[in-house]
């Protein structure tokens, strides 16, 4: 089960109430720095933008590929460990607006994690150290340490023990 905080709304759908949940100018600022980072050819600049302007926790030597889209509303709820790779065009969400409620949850990505291109990580998910997420995966639940996962919806392809055995 994903770890999210749930906030019910009444009347119009929750996205209609967006600026009751997050300030407009915060979204504008975040959007500008996210777009700058998405297109920046320099990994150090991306990490600087994420850490400084978006208040994300980004580990040392972590690499965000071209076009990675981090959460525009709550990027400060995203933490990525050391020496991880976030693949091309991956989306990392820390919020979701539904009809009758919105949800917010921390996204925690461990150390030495590889996330394949075009993956989507939903709010409230933890990805353990040394995990591998296959390309185009919908990460809708926690990923145990050292596992190889993939698919839509995500499933475990190899456990940590199977991965160790495979790599011998």
Automatic annotation (TrEMBL):
- Give the Gene Ontology MF terms in alphabetical order: acyltransferase activity
User: Which keywords accompany this UniProt record?
Assistant: Acyltransferase, Transferase
> Does this UniProt record's set of keywords contain Acyltransferase?
yes
Return the broad EC class: transferase
Q: What is its EC number?
A: 2.3.1.-
PANTHER family (alphabetical) = ACETYLTRANSFERASE (PTHR43300), ACETYLTRANSFERASE YVOF-RELATED (PTHR43300:SF6)
Q: What is this protein called?
A: Acyltransferase
């Amino acid at each position: 089960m994903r770890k999210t905080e749930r906030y019910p709304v009444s009347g119009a759908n929750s996205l209609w109430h967006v600026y009751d949940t997050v300030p407009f100018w915060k979204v504008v600022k975040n959007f500008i720095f996210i777009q700058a980072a998405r297109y920046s050819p320099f990994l150090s600049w991306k990490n600087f933008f994420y850490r400084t302007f978006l208040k994300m926790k980004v580990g040392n030597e972590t690499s965000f590929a071209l076009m990675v889209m981090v959460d525009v509303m709550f990027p400060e709820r995203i933490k990525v460990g050391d020496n991880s790779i976030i693949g091309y065009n991956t989306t990392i969400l820390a919020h979701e607006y539904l009809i009758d409620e919105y949800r917010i949850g921390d996204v925690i990505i461990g150390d030495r994690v590889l996330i394949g291109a075009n993956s989507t990580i939903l709010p409230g998910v933890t990805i353990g150290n040394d995990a591998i997420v296959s390309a185009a995966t919908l990460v809708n639940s926690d990923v145990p340490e050292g596992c190889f996962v993939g698919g839509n919806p995500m499933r475990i392809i190899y456990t940590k023990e199977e991965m160790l055995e495979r790599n011998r």
